[in-house]
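Shipment paperwork, digital attachment
Item: protein structure file
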Amino acid sequence: MTLYFDCIVDSPHTSAINTHIAWHAQSACLAVAAYSEEKGGTVNVYTGEGKLCEEVEIPPHPTAQVTSMVWHPSKRVMAVGWESGELFLWNDHEHELREIQSLHRAPISVLLFSAAGTRLISADASGATVGWRVDNSGDLQTVFTHELKDPLVQVVYRVNTAADKTLPPLDINGLARAAVSGDERALDIFSSWRPRTGHKHLGMMGTAKDNLNFFLGSSTGVLYHVNETGNCVEVLQADGGIKRLLHHGSRNLLVVITESLVLGQFSVAVDGSVTEINRVKLSGRTNDIQVAWAGAGLLAVSTGDSSVRLWNLDSGDNNVLSLRGPSYRDQEFVMCLSYSSNKNILCAGTNLGSVAMWKYEESKLTEEEYVRDPEKDWKLQNPTVISGTVKQVAWGSAQNLLGVNTVRDVYILNEQHMVASYKDQVSVVQVSPTQLSVDVFSGGSHLELRAEIQVRGVHNSLDHLLLWNMKKMVVYEITSDATHLRVVASFACETESAVLHEGSIYAIEGNNIQVRSLQGTVKQTLNFTENEGQPIGLDVCGNFLVTATIHGIVKLWDLSRREAKPHTQGKQMGDYIKDFGEIISARCNCNGTRVSIAVAQTSLLPDPKLYIWDIESESFTYFNFASGRSEDDDVDGTAPPNSAESVSSKEEGINSRAKRETAQEVGGRFVMSHMWDAEDPRLLVCEAKSLHNTKKQKDHYLSSASKEEKPAVMLVSLFVSPDHGNIVQDAFALSPSFSRLLGVQVPFFYLLNSHDAEKKVDNKAVTQKVMREFTGLESCDKSTKDAMLNFSFYLSIGNMDDAFKAIKTIKSETVWENMAKMCVKTKRLDVAALCLGNMGHARGARALRYAMKEPQLDARVAMLALQLGMLDEAERLYRGCGRHDLLNRLHQDAGVWSKALEVAETHDRIHLRSSHYNYAKHLESKGDYSGAISHYEKSDTHRFEVPRMLFDDLPTLEDYIMHTKDRALRRWWAQYLESTSEMETALQFYEAAHDHLSLVRVYCYCNNLQKAADIANETGDRAACYHLARQYENVAQVKEAIHFFTRAQAYGNAIRICKDNGFDDQLLNLALVAGPQEQIDAARYFSSSERRQLPKAVMLYHKAGLLSKAVDLAFKSGQISAVGQIAGELDESADPALIQRCAQYFISNGQYDRAVSLLITGRQYFEALDLCVEHNVWVTEELAERFTLPKDEKARNQILEKVAECAYAQENYKLATKKFTQAGNKVKAMKCLLKSGDTERIVYFANVCRQREIYIMAANYLQSLDWRKEPDIMRNIIQFYSRAKASGLLAGFYDSCAQVEIDEFQNYEKAAGALNEAYKVITSSSDPQTQERLPSLKYKLEKVNQFNNIKRMFVTDGDAAIQEMQQLLADPNIEVAVRQGDIYAVMVEYFAANNNFKSALNILQEMKTKLPKANPSYYVDAQTLQAISRTTGMNFAEVENGMQEEGGSEEEGNASEEEVVEEDEEEERPQQHHFALNGSAKFF
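Attachment content:
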C-alpha cells in the first residue's frame, strides 16, 4: 500500500502564473514555465524535492511568455519556444542558454524531439516549420524548412513499432537492471526492497533506429506528412481544426481528434498517405478534450465531465472510469490526464483540486464470471487533494514523479510506501502522509495521531512512538491509560532507519548508528569501519539489536545493559553464501541465538533461500523457498529455479509424505519479509510471495509447471532447531484483504489490512489473526502457550512421545480440539484419534474409524476435518485427492447445492442424476415444487416422482402434463383418465403418447373395430395387432384374425387358425416365415393329414433344422434332389448315422468328392481317406486343411500322415511335405521334399529341422547337383555333413573333391588341400569305421605331397627329380594316389623344356610299354608332343589312332572303371561326381 507525499516547488516568483510544466524522462528535473507582469516570462528547473536547480539559469523574457518547451529524451538538453518566435536551447554540458537562429516570427506552438532524440521539430502559428538535426553534444543544425502558411498546433512522430512498443514483459536478465532504474513493475515483484548496490551491475542500454517521419496538424484541419528528408505532403483535410494527433504503432494507425470532437482512425501507408477506417462523434460537457494513451492501443478520453472513457482501438471495446466514492464531490470534473506506463497508473486532475489515480491490476475471474470486465481491472486509489484547480498533470523521471500544475502553484507528488510498526501489542499504521492510526491491543483502545511532519518512518515500543522523515524525528508517549498521545521530544535527525528500545533510540546516521535518548541526546555511537560499509537496516527483538551493512556484514549487539555491547563478532555473508550479492534484511530472535537473513544474488535477484545464522554453533543453514525444503532435505545445494516442480526441485530421497506435500505447497516462492516471535526463540514466520502471478515470464527462474495456480502470498511459520533444522510448522495463504505481515506474538499474527479492508472492519488498520494451534485459546496462560508450542514442535519433527508429554497435563477440551485440527494439517490420524477420544467426540471417532477404509490418505484426513467443522479444509482435501464423489456428498450435506451440482457436472458425472434427485427432494421438502420438477427431470425420475408429488393438486399436475412432451407421463395420465371413464380425453392423451396398443384396446372396448383396424394397419404396432386379432378371433372373423396375427408376428396363432380351417396354402406361407417350432408343427400337419403333402413336410423339416427327419421323408418320397440339398448343409453337429447315410447316397451316385467332404464334416476321417485312395479323389490344399485336426486331438498325427501318403501317391510332394511336417515326421517330409527337387526348400528345411538324418539326406541330395559350379551348394554340403557329425561322409566328400582335381584338372596342389581336409576330419573323429580309412588316406596324402615336392625340385635339380620320379613309378600302389601317366608327363615336359627331346621320346616309349592303353595326349601337352614329333620324326597321331583301335581311349577306360567302383561303393558312401576345385579352393 502506497501514499503520495506532496511538496510545493520553491518558486522564486510568488506572483507568477505557471503556464507549462515538463519532466525530463530520466533525470529528476522539472521545468516550470511561468509569467508575471513584473518579470515577464520565466523558466525554472526544480529537483524532485522541489528545490530550485541553481546550476540552471535561464534569463526571463521581459515581454513574452513560453508557448512550448520540451526535454531531450536522454540528454539534459531543453528547447524553449517563446511567444515572440524566439527559440532557445539550454545544454547541461555547457550550462548555458543559447538562442537558435530560425525563421520563426510567430509564437512557437510545436516543439518535439524524436524518440531517440536525433531530430527536433519546431513549428509556429504562422505555419513555419523547421527540422533540426541534434548532434551528440546537443547542438542543432537545420535539415529542412517549410512555410505552410497554416497555423500548426499538433505534431506526432510515426512510432517505430519494433523500438517504441510499450515495455515488454520483464525478462530475468533485465529484471534487476529495471528494478535499479526505477521500473515499478520490477520493483513490485520484489515488494518494497530496492537494491542498494545496483549501480555495479548496470550496463549500457541499446538504442533502436530512430523514426523521423511525422505528421503535422493545423488549426484549419489540414494534416501534413513530412518524411525524414523533409519532403512535405498534404494527406488529409479534416472537418474542423485538429485538436490532437496520436499514432498507434502496433497497428500503424493515426488517431485524429478535431475541435468538433470527432475522433477518426486512419491507416497509414508507407509513403504517409492515410485511409479512413472509422470515425466517432464524442460528446462531453465542453469541447476542451483531454486524450492520453493508457496502455498499448488503449485510449483514455475525457471531455470535461466526471468520467474517463477507455477505448481499446484493437478490439473496439470501451468502458468508463468514474470518480466515485466519498472522497469525490458531485460537481467534480476531470481537467487533465496523464498515464505512467511504468506504474500502470492513469492520473486525472480535477477542478476541485483532487489528483485521482486508477491503477491497472489484472483481476481474476470469479466462479460466476465467464468474461473479464476491464473496468474491474482499474482500481481507483485514494486521491491526493491540493488547493486549486488542476490544469496539468505529468509523469516523469526515472523515479516516476508526478508534477501537478494548479496555475498558482506546482506540486511534486512522490510515491511513498505506507509505513507501519508493531511491538508489544501496540501497532502504528500510517494512513496519510501526516496521519497515523494507533491500536493498543492489550487495552482495546484506538488512537488517531496527526503528526507535525510528513512521516517516512515509524517504530514503537510499549509506551512510546517514534516518527521521522529525512530531516526530523518526533517522539510521542502513550499515556498509561492509552487514551491519548503526548509529544516527548522533537529534534533534527537525518536518518532512513531507526528503532526504539527501552528509552533509547537507535538510528542510522551516515555511516554509523547513533544511540540517542528520547530527547535526542546522543548517548553512544556504534561505529562501522570502511570495510564493513554503511549500515542499511535495523531490527530489535528482545534485548538484541541486529544490523546489516551494504558490504554484507551482519552485526549483533546486546542491549540488556546500560550500553550496547557486541553480542558476537560480525559475519561477512559472502564467506558463507554462494553467489552473494547484498543483504536485503536481517532479523534476530528474542534470545539472540539466531539471525535470519534474506539476501540478493549477484544478479540482484532475491535469493529464494532464507539463511539462518546459529550464533552458538557458528553455523549457517537455510530454508529454500524455491523447493520448499530445508537444507537437510534440499538435495541440490545451489539455488534451483524458483519452481517447486522444476528438475532440481524434484523429490529425491524424501520419504516423508508430509515434507513432500509441504514442499509442493510452499515451494516456488521467495521471502518478502521474516519475523521472529517476541517470546519463543524457535518460531520464525516468513511472508513468501509466488512469482507465478506476475507478468508472464519467459525465463525458467520465474516460471512454473504447476497445474493449479498457487496463492500469491503465503505466511509460512518455521520451527528453527539446531538438532532438527528448519521445519515448516504451518503455511496458509494471505488473503487479499491483508496487505502484509506486521508482527508475530503468540498466539496472534498481526496483519496489516489492505486499503479496501480498512473500510469494512471497524476502521482498524491491523487485524489479529489467531494461530492455528490457539483457536479458542486466545486468552490462555503462558503455561498453556508453551505446552501448545512444544506439542506443535514435537509433532512437526515426528516425535510423538514428547508431543504427548507436552500436553498430558492439559485437560481443556478446547486444547484437544485445537490439536485435532492441527492433525488435519499434519495428517497425523493416529494423533487425531487420541485427541477425539480426549474430546469425547464419539461421533467423530466412529466416522474416522470408518474413513480408514478409504484408499487415499487425504480422503481420510478430510473426514477428520469434516467432523471438526473444517469444511473448507475438507473440501480442499477431497478436491486434491480427486475424491469428487465425497466432495459432492459433502456439499449436499452442507446444503451447498450449487457447488454440489457443479462438482457432479464437471467431475462426478456418475452421481449427477442422484445429485439432481437429492436436490429435487430437498426443494420438495421446502415446498419449491417448480424447482423440484426441474431437477426431477434432470435426474430422469420425473415420470414417477412428479405425479406422486402433484397427485393431491390435480390441476397443477394436468397443466404440467399438458406442457410436457414426455410420452410416459402422457400415457400415465391417459390411464388415469381411463380409470375415471373419460374415454374421449383418454384417447387424446393415448394418441399424444403414441400408445397404439391402448388406442386399439379402448376402441375395441368401445366396439369400434374398424377404427382399431385402421390404427393397427397404419402403425404396424405388434401389440396392437395382436390385441385386435384376438378380438377378431372372438367374433369369428377368421381372415381378419389371421391377417393381424401375421402383422403381430404371432405366427403360431395364425397357423393354428389355418389348421383349424384347412387353409393349407396360407399355412405353408406362414410356416416359412415363422419360427422353428411353428415350422415343425406345420410339417407334422402336412405329413400326417389325410392329404399327405410330403414335399412340403420335407421343406419345413429342413427349414426348421430337423435334417434327419427331412432326409427320412425325402428317401421315403423319393426326393433325391432334396437329399443332396440337405446333405450340403450338414455340419459336424449332425447325426453321424445321417451323415453316413448321405455319404453312401453320394457314393452310390459316383459323387465321391462330395462323399469325402461329407465324411470329413462328420469327423469320419479314416473312411474319407480310404475313399480318396480307393477312388483316387484328388487331395487339394483346401481338402487337406479340413483333414487337419486341432493339436489336442489324439488322431491328428495319424490322419495327417495318411493324408500325406495319399498326396505322395498322387505325386503332390509339396502338400505331402507339409502334412508330414505337421504330423512331426520330418524324415518322411524330407523324402517328399527330395522328390520335389526344390533345392531352396530342401536347404531351408534342413536348416530348420536340425536333425542328423535330415542333414545327411540333404547333403547327399546336394551332391547329385552340379555343385562344381555352385559354391553355395558345396558350402551347404560341407555344412550339413559337419552339423550331422558324419565324419566319414565328409571325409569321403573331400576325397572325391581331391580325385576330381586329379582326374579333371591334374591339379595335385588342390588335391593335396582336399586330402588334407579329409585327413583332419578323420583324425578328429572317434568313429572306429571312419578311423579304418585313415591308413589309405594317409598313404594317398603322402604320395600326393611327395609328387608335388618332386615337381618343385625340377626348378633346382632336375636329375634328382627324375630319379625321385622313377622311384615313385617303382611303387606298385602308386596308381591309388598318383596316376602314372601324370608322372611320365612331368618327366616328358621337363626334358622337352630343356630341348632333350630324345630323352623325352624315351620316356614316352617307356610309358607306352608300361601303360599300353594310355593316350599320351591325355597327359602331355599337345604343343610338347608336336615339338618332340618335329625333332624325332615320330608321328604320335598314328600311335594315338592305333591305341584307340586297340582298346579305346583312356577316358573310356577310366569311365568304365569308375562305373565299376561306383557300383561297388554305392552302398558304402554317397554318390560322387566330378568336382572342379578351381572355383572353390577357398573352402580348403
